[in-house]
Every structure is written in structure tokens, then in C-alpha cells.
Amino acid sequence: MQRPKIRERIRATALELLRGHPQGLRFSELHRQIRQSDTSFNASTINTYIWNLDALHPEQVYKPIKGLYRLIEFKDPVPAELNEDPPVEVQQIKIREEVFYPLFASWLKNDIEDVTHAIALGGNAFRDRWGTPDVIGKAESRRSDVIKGPTSIVSAEIKIDPAGLVTGFGQACAYKLFSHKSYLVIPTQTPEDELARVDSLCQIFGIGLVTFNAKCPALPEFRLIIRPLKHEPDLFYTNRYVAHIEKELFS
Fold first, then answer.
1. How far apart are CA 112 and CA 143, in angstroms?
2. CA–CA separation, 214 vs 226, rounded Å?
3. What is the pLDDT at residue 82?
4. Where would I find the H helices in the chain?
5. What tens digit of pLDDT does each residue of 82-129 get?
6. Quick one: pLDDT at residue 90?
7. pTM of the entire structure?
């Protein structure tokens, strides 16, 4: 008997996992559990075959909110909110900030669907002392959209050390020069008084605020605290900076 193709196996696994989670699963959690179920599955292959699971199986899967997949059989009795995940042991090893860049890029695209494509950046890609975002993405209308809008740029600054909050906030503000939306991503381990200050500042300046577990790359648990306000950047700078990464972002 011929073995099912990888795409069928991955999608069948996804549906089985959703059957065991009536409350639904976020894209990142569904992806993680599929990978755990069969380590022979490549991470990018899983991404390719489940990102539009609701469109491929509309009779079985739907999204009650952005980035949350749930079986239609559980549609009515279960609220949209996810149950809290079990606590994760804190890792003692030194974790590099760059590890979280692609993880946040994936979350931005697949969990809250604020972009249609995002890439990890960081470093000095823009060759400018005003800084380079850790993650940058674009939001474009899909072919299936009835009403189509203009392309917008979304940037993010990620900090794993609460001591860098002021610097991070300043960088997130600077990214508004060329981005339609800007995010500041900070550890859940941030002291409450510091978090309260950053929360207020982000609301005042229209910066999106996200918290995450900076001690566990395996399960960062990104959580949206404040949605960014969309505004019109200076297109001169938008074009100037995006030109450096045009191939990676628009190909």
C-alpha cells in the first residue's frame, strides 16, 4: 500500500491535534505540536501545508479570531480565548536575542496576521545610525480580497533584557519614520512598574506592545498587549530603507 504524501500526513496530523483541542490552537502551537509528533517533518514544510488550513478544509476548520485554528464541530460551545499553556521551565543558559527574530516574524504573520510576509533583520542592514528593525514585514491585499488596499510596512524592535527598554522604545519610535506600524517586544519578566510606564508610552505614541517569555525560545508565548496605530510614514524614507531589502521582502 502506498504511503500518503507528506502534505496529507501533515494536514491529517493537524486535524487530529485540533480534534484533541476543542478550544483551538494558535498557528505557532499547532506547528510545534505537529513537529513534536513526527520529527521527520521539516519546519518550513509544516508551515507550507498548514498556514491556510481553514481555506483547504473549510468544511472542517475555521478561524474564530486571527491566527487561531479550530474545528467547526467545536464552533458554538467553546469561547474564542485559548486556555493558558502550562508553565515552562526557565532555561539557565544564555540566550541570544537574535533567536527570537524569526519566531516573532512567524507570530506576526501567522498568529495575529498583521502582515502577509515578514523577515528577521537586525544588525546594520539599513546602514544607518537610526537603526535597523529586528523584524520587518509587509501587509498586502490577497488575490481573494474583494476590497484591496495599499501595501504597508510593519517594523519591530525586540529586547530580551528589561534594562534596554528605554533604548528599545526610542528605536520603535524611530521606525515610524518609514513604517506604517511599529512594535516594541519586551520580556514578560519586566518589572511591573517598568511595564506600566512602557504601556502608557506605547499608547501615547501609537506603538504596538508585545510581551514574551525571553527565557524559552521553544515556547516564547508572544502576547499582544497594545495594537499599534497605523499612520502614514514619510515615503521618502520608506523607499530609501526598503530598497536595501527589496529582494527579501518583495520577491
1. 20
2. 19
3. 46
4. 6-19, 27-37, 43-50, 53-56, 100-106, 165-174, 192-205, 235-242, 246-250
5. 444 555 444 456 889 999 999 999 999 999 999 999 999 988 888 877
6. 44
7. 0.73
Contacts 24+ apart (CB under 8 A), 228-233: 228/154, 228/181, 228/182, 228/183, 229/181, 230/152, 230/180, 230/181, 231/176, 231/180, 231/181, 231/206, 232/180, 233/153, 233/176, 233/177, 233/178, 233/179, 233/180
Cα–Cα dist 155/239, whole Å: 14
Q: Which residues of 128-156 are buried (b: 16+ CB within 10 A; e: fewer)?
A: eeebbbbbbbbbeeeeeeeeeeeebbbbb
Q: Could you give the CA distance from residue 114 to residue 155 in angstroms, rounded to a whole number?
A: 11
pLDDT greater than 50 at residue 1: no
Query: CA-based angle 143:50:110, to the nearest 5?
Result: 70
Distance, CA of 84 to CA of 76 (rounded, Å):
20
C-alpha 136/C-alpha 121 separation (Å) is 7
Q: Are strands 152-158 and 181-187 parallel, antiparallel or unpaired?
A: parallel
What does the block give as the cell for 247?
Answer: 529582494
Question: What is the DSSP track for 63-98?
Answer: -SSTTEEEEGGGTTTS-SSPPPPPP-PPP-S---GG
DSSP helix/strand/coil, 34: helix
